# Entry
Amino acid sequence: MSAPPSDRCPARLAQVRGALGRSDLDALLVTSLPNVRYLTGFAGSNALVVVTPLDCLLFTDFRYATQVAAEVSPAVTVHIEPASLWKGVWGRLPACAGVARVGFESAHLLHQDFARLLEQGSRWQWRPTTDVVEALRAVKDAGEVAAIEKAVGIAESAWRATVPQLHAGLTERQVAGILERALREAGSEGFPFPSIVASGPQSALPHARAGERVLQRGDLLLVDFGAVADGYCSDLTRTVALGPADSRQREMHAVVAEANRRASGGIRAEMSGKDADALARDYIASSGWGEAFGHSLGHGIGLEVHEAPRLARGADAPLPAGAVVTIEPGIYIPGWGGIRIEDDVLLTATGARVLTTVPRGLMELH
Amino acid sequence: MSAPPSDRCPARLAQVRGALGRSDLDALLVTSLPNVRYLTGFAGSNALVVVTPLDCLLFTDFRYATQVAAEVSPAVTVHIEPASLWKGVWGRLPACAGVARVGFESAHLLHQDFARLLEQGSRWQWRPTTDVVEALRAVKDAGEVAAIEKAVGIAESAWRATVPQLHAGLTERQVAGILERALREAGSEGFPFPSIVASGPQSALPHARAGERVLQRGDLLLVDFGAVADGYCSDLTRTVALGPADSRQREMHAVVAEANRRASGGIRAEMSGKDADALARDYIASSGWGEAFGHSLGHGIGLEVHEAPRLARGADAPLPAGAVVTIEPGIYIPGWGGIRIEDDVLLTATGARVLTTVPRGLMELH
# Structure
């Protein structure tokens, strides 16, 4: 058994304090809920956190009184606010010693709340920060990897239960219903993003959802979905053929499968996100389909289904050991269809471990 | 058949221009995606819109090229941006005549993007606005009411299919799976919020999700869920007993049902949100359970599952005719359980029409 998540909070708070010190900041206002969860253990939907040199203050409302007591680390001081969480901040922050310059999360603070800082919080100096907590979250510890592996296992179990039920005549939405029920049966806490079930020409739209189209024999069927376990996400895509595949479907699927294999086999920690992206992109381009792979290769997964690091053309930063990323090359041809094969991969100091195990070959369903 | 949603966009854009004129603004930068959808018809997940005196500019990325062409109103000029949507704004806005003062949505603009306005958009005067589009959205037209009624019908059909399958021994998550599959079978485009399936003592937590608890004979089971149709949401809660209810369960359920009946029967357009809330709250308080009804009576539903207007103690504004709101009184007793009964109600000039029809009496399942 891994330790409960909140056991890791004191070490994470120490890392945040170290990062603040290097930026000449005394404290950090945390408004991103996944960052709140990472630092305190609290999984509710309404919270503000201030990490100070000696304390970590968490403000939430009465609806979460029971939950917050069960979830948060003893390193965190909880305040249940009867009115506004901001009122709590302005009431408690003056008593925190040594707090003058306070960072806030520029990517997670709305303008209306930024205006509060300037008006009601004018006794402090506010400084925008980016990625302070996100950079820590990019490197998973053993407990986080175990949670992601659990979420991968749930998604794979649901996929295995769904495949035998797929057939022409179902709508995309009915397929989503079969899959989502299987995810719940396998224990998923929820759905990390709206399931994509895209058939025939719809599969050429990288951001299709699940619509009213009726599956036809001869279609490609692209299914992109995930599970949630202990708050952590998995993200998986397979593309199958309904009935015997034709030669073009087989050929295109083989190109994507080989791109996936090269990227999963070649990716390493310390490689840049751009170089990782190129492992798949260069192969697809050499096969003549470069224009048809219009999105990036992948992204980190964890408490959010899209988080750091990015595997993309513009990503120069080295990938950290301990990151868990998706590898999801695809080819999309308007009017014909699309193919994507997505796995979840853990980067280690010595290589890469593919967490997803369901077959990647082209399944031809009957 | 109602007209397709984008047919209503020119009238909505005219209303926005009228509101801007009254605030001495020339244009509005729209960063809320539901507001983008309301004004342009576009339902994708990446867009910026600028409403100018003579045009409405929509910026999105290549992934949505097909979708945006199918969805948007001819009153909108679409720009597919190869790089950043913001780059598109800075490239196109200078050509728009008569644009000097531009409003932005203070509740839907992140600090990092506000910083862009000040840096890259320094040739315009930026002014925070609140609720410009939200105030229009609070009043539904006939097509919107029809979409909400469709979403209510889907949710009710799913509920009717689920009830006969409920029994002790299932986990809350399995119940969620049965219900969510039924929602898909009935045609739901997705889930407007994570389903709440809370049994026994869990039902006392107003924001429980669906966990691993196994349903027991004698439990109360609270189920809060919704459907999506044509982008519009429904939101429905019923609380049932697993096996014969005991006298306390019956008594408490009757209090909540009567509070629901009084509020649904007494609510009127032009009443304040506070007075509507009091219709249920005063009755629950007079029954001795005032402390146990800790949340507000309801909220508007539409493109979002929580939108204007609010039915709550602090809501002084009159409720507009044409609003569709939830009415969801509840009683929650820690350690014992909770009961909530939630309906969706359309406010008209002459009264209120309850859209939800599934029985509100206490069902005792076997």
